Amino acid sequence: MLELRSISKRFGGVDALIDVSISINKDLVGIVGPNGSGKTTLFNIISGHVRQDRGEVFFMGREISRLSIGERVRIGILRTFQMPKVFWSLSVWDNIAPLARDRVYAVEAMKRLDLWSKRDLKPRRLALSDIRRLEIARCLVLSPRILLLDEPLAGLSHEEAEDLGSLISEIHRDLGIPVAVIEHKLGHLSRIARRVVAMNAGRIVIDAPTDEAMARVREMLLGL
Amino acid sequence: MIEIFLFSIITGLVYMLMATGFNIVLGVSKMVNLAYGAQIIITAYIMSTLLDILPMPLAIISSIALSLAIGGAIWQSLWIFRRDLILSIVVSIAIALFIEGVILKIYGARLLSITIAGGEVLGISSQWFLAAVASIASMALFYIIMTYTMLGKRMAAVAENEDLARYMGINVRLTSMASFLIATLFASIASIAITPLYAIYPHIGWYYLTIVLAVVVIGGLGSIAGSLASSMILSLTQSVAAYYIGSPAKDLIPLAILISVLVAKPEGIFGRGVRWA
Amino acid sequence: MKSNPYWDLYILAPPLAVMIITPLIIGSIYLQSLMILSYLFGVIVAIYDFFYIRSGYINLGYTYMVASAAFAVAIAMRIHSMSLSIPASLLISLAMCSAILIPMLRLRGPFYSVATLLYPFALAPIARLFPDVFGGDAGIYVRPIFSDFTSLYYSSIALGVLTFAVVSIIMSSRVGVILTMIRDDEILAESSGVRVDRIKILSHILVTIMITAIMFFYTQVVGAVSVELADPIPILIYALMATAIYKPGSSVYSFIAGIALWWLDGLLRAYLYDLRLIIISILLISIYILRRG
Predict the structure, then answer these.
(1) ipTM of the complex as predicted
(2) Which of A174, B13, B144, C73 has its CA 20 to 30 A from that of C257?
């Protein structure tokens, strides 16, 4: 489905990614690691917001490095961002519906993410958890073939994170598409992800099923 | 024919001088100074008045000094508003307009030309020779400043990353002012160099501004090598166009080349990366 | 985006009423002409405010578009058949204005503004290179087609109203929401699958068509077109002033401010010609500084 081969990226004097290779098929993959380990850069390269220095990105068998951000969206690569990105001057409805091919999808997505009752509100009036849901709903109406979520649970309370985490898990099951989630909330993440990839200083250091990976991550953290 | 070629080169050198001034301010202070065109002509006007009362060398020095004072005032106005894009563009346009208005009021709309030197040097008119020397000397001065002085290093640091530079103890405000004054100096020298060659009038400041803007956008953001290349390409193409098509074609060249470059390679000839996205 | 655009449209009623009543009170064709010209200028400024200033793209080459449209009309009117002139003027105008679309697709922020500033200064050389077509420095006359001034007068008013109506309809549609998305966050819009380039091109075409229609009436009133129209000084300056006066983005207020500034320019030219530029520059700075605080 999604395959990165030997991706490297350097910013100024810093190596953000060093020879990173990874394959994602139908899993819900958790991506963990300290700040600056390259997680968001990885997403940026997949979504096209940043161009890699070396290496290739394959999606559904096709090398996509030449595709623009918009073109990648149209082949189904959807993502959210670390800092919430929504259209602040538009209501929830206007944030989502105009992007959908059919209003029906927009209504479905909003109901799914429990935003339907808030559809006339502007993002300024929403709680953070609802803004995160808005971002996910926006991805859903664009017919995703892969979902990249960058710290969707950041800033949420324990219950909110729990709820949103289960929702993400359900969406993964129902849509049958690969989902990659960058998260720092390891507890919540390990409950929804089947596989965990840990990064450090631009490299992938662990890529294993959740239980095994989490054990090794704990070792790593204690070691740091 | 050789003469035309030579004149193109020299004109290109003066363009380069102008563009470097603009690039310095853009790079260090991230300010778009649309009053730069006005700065390019005002020194010549001041000098034309001073020549009546002072001997040539003093007139040159005084007019440059006065231009620097004006430049300082312009910098101060732009510095206050630099965080706001629309406002800084508007303020610099307003300053340009104000200067043009004052020049128009005092000197009228007639053409102005000044004579600095007579006779010939190395087979070409002294004015051309001096223009070439002034441009090359200024670029050399710029190189020395950037490479060997603390100021140059500070300017480079601020251009690279203003917050980091401030954090490291560099006085960003003073560095910005210093770089603006250097840019003003270059504009003044260019003014004195070019007016004996091509007569000026109050509205021509905008024409020189478009030349500078074209050179900068075509050459690539902050790229000195790019500015040199694009100044020369611009000047030479202008001469060719004027020779084969006609004089008005000269004025179309900046835009024509700009459009071609934007279509083919938007980052500019030597540019790298995104345009203020 | 306004919470209720229609409230703002009510503001149009008083100036519109004044325009409609004027011929009944003032007999002078000359004064009526001035009224219409100021009105048309107001619409030009409103378009500038709406499509450029509000979208964050400070187009400093707007006068290039306005002048190109005027020339397109004047040139097309040499064909003595209206059914051919109208499409011809649109085609020529679109062709000439397409050049200024390029910076919009390739540049952003100050670089966009800086690049667009080059365009207005290209029209004078073009006019000199092709004097048969563009009339050189003198310009060209425009063939009058209205049998009486009154029909020209009221047709112009109708066009202005139509322009506001079209823009309002577009903005309350799905396209309008997408335009707001692009204005809010262009990269996010791109990341949400919006075909930003396509929208920019469509907006540009719409603006060009509207400006061409307006300049059609403008040239009918004035009777001639010359390259002076392209000079950003002072037309662009007034446009910038007018779009700052209320809040950026209240295009209706820019319309009214545009009319007022057009009359102000007339007064300056008549009584304070020498000091015109100085006064305008001081006004420009003051208005912007006051507004931005």
Answers:
(1) 0.89
(2) C73
On chain C, the residues whose CB falls within 8 A of the CB of B203 are 233
**Is C290 a domain residue?**
no
- Identify whether C116 is part of a domain: yes
- Number of domains comprising chain C: 1
Integer Cα distance of C199 and C206 in angstroms: 10
Residues of chain C positioned with their CB less than 8 A from the CB of A68:
190
Cβ <8 Å between A69 and C191: yes
Residues of C in contact with B260 (CB under 8 A): none
| Distances from the Cα of C258 to the Cα of A156, B95, C16, C74, C230, angstroms | 49, 22, 14, 24, 17
Tens place of pLDDT per residue across chain B (277 aa)? 788 888 899 999 999 999 999 988 988 888 889 999 999 999 999 999 998 899 989 999 999 999 999 999 999 999 988 888 778 888 999 999 999 999 999 998 888 888 877 777 777 788 888 899 999 999 999 989 988 999 999 998 898 888 889 998 999 999 999 999 999 999 999 999 998 888 899 999 999 999 999 998 888 766 777 888 889 999 999 999 988 888 888 889 999 998 988 888 766 665 554 333 2
Question: Is C215 among the domain residues?
Answer: yes
Angstrom CA distances, A28 to A33, A114, C209, stand at 17, 22, 51
**Are the C-beta atoms of A123 and A86 separated by less than 8 Å?**
yes
Range of the domain at C40: 7-231
The identity of residue C17, as a single letter, is A
* Cα separations in angstroms, B40 against A11, B56, B190, C187, C232: 38, 19, 7, 37, 19
In a domain, C224, yes or no: yes
Partner C contacted by A74 (CB < 8 A): yes
Task: Extract the tokens encoding C174.
Answer: 């799905």
Contact assignment for C196 to A70 by CB distance below 8 Å: yes
Spatial CA neighbour of C171 closest among C51, C62, C254: C51
Contact, C248 vs C290, CB < 8 A? Answer: no
Q: Which residue of A has its CA nearest to C172?
A: A94
Half-sphere exposure of B155 (CA within 13 A, CB side): 26
In this complex, do C184 and A87 lie within 8 Å of one another by their Cβ atoms?
yes
Place of tokens 């040239």: C219
